[in-house]
Amino acid sequence: MFAMSRWGNLQKFIVSGVACAVALALTTATPLAGAVPDQAPGLAWNTCGDSVDTSRVPTARCTTVSVPVDWNDVSNPQAAQANLAVIRIPATGQKIGTIISNPGGPGISAIEVMTRFAPKLAKTEIGRRFDLVAFDPRGVGLSTPEVRCASDADLDADRTDPQVDYSPAGVARIEEADRERAQKCVDRMGVPFLAGMSTENTARDMDAVRAALGEEQLNFFGYSYGTRLGTAYAEQFPDRVRAMMVDGVVDQFADPVAVLVEQAAGFQQAFDAYAADCATQPSCPLGTDPAQFNDRLHQLVDPLVEKPARTADPRGLSYEDAMNGVNEALYSSEDWPRLTDGLTALARGTDADDLLEFADEYAERDEDGHYTNSADAFIAVHCADEVYPTDPAVWAENDRQVREVAPYESYGEFTGYAPRPLCVNWPVRPSEPHPVSSPGPGKVVVVSTTGDPATPYQNGVDVAAQLGAPLITFVGNQHTVAFSGNRCIDQALEAFFVDLVQPPADLHC
Question: What is the pTM of this model?
């Protein structure tokens, strides 16, 4: 079994293979209607309060923008509202506009990420010339109401259950557990709110934020899932796009079943690159023989299915935590040394807290044992967006293919059975997938990384072609790269956003 196809990466992944069969009547995701006015009354900006750490961005101010849960019901004064939390960091120089940024997910607090991202941008022409704005999408982070289906105790318990039994009985147990979780979402949030969680609706919300800011056109940074939000906005409001950068691209037209296989292959590529680097050290816990890297990892982590490993934290390290910790570290080569430390501890039988810390980062669990709602928000958005086949045979074949392309994380043997995604019977029917449409020439730049494990490089190639947009290629091993310190890329993007100068054709950095 491929562990990432269970929950995906709830912080950054765009696809998930959560298994379930929710016997609920299907409704249709809320279609979009009702125009957002080009201007709105001025916003009341205030200090952000204790819920936002602004120590790195002391000039930051916060506000809220209210949007209808159902964009078809904008004329009803009694209609349910979602309150979007918004942060703004003013330009440090002569302002020419505002950039809205979304870091991915879905389910990540864009506000929290912006407080860490803005100090880096302050050193560039972007931070000097633009106000930097982020909003937590509906149901996410500081926006209210938040999607919250599982308790902290529920999520801790999930991490101790490896769910690697793909016998018919094991698959039935997995699907039953997921059915219960999905029903909790319906009971706590209601179908109308879940129906409003689609990316199309979030794009309409983003236009409401743009209007409330008094901006005639949108400047946008989209990373990972944020690329899907950006292209959804460009499709609905092409004339309102000034400049848009999408990095770590999600192809909304791609077959979601095939995407799982491609993503698995991307993570195998990242693991192979890590293992080869590790093997340059005689003490590498995976050994020095490339033919043995996958088997050696299994020797370290598979026993955790039966018994957690030792950690200083009383929870110990479960199988699920070990694999999620490995996958978290594969997002960036900067984390490889710490991953080696964690695997070395596992091999020696000493405290493997590095892997547990990676797993906590992966699941967004803080030191007090509290989780963000990223897991529940991820499911709600993803299931409102993706159309999955219902045939169990499709998912058995998907499991076979994933095992073939990603042996490093494939537990046990192929059984011919596999759980179906939770989204198969989610109580919201997604819209049908279609290619992205261009907002017009010169408005979008695509960035893609050759060794990106989560959003494969080819996604960027394909979406750039669909948009008729220039592609910047970064040769490296990480998930997203723009404004992380690569001057080749950053200078090209600064010129694009400040002066609308397109990057050179086929730029490689």
Answer: 0.84
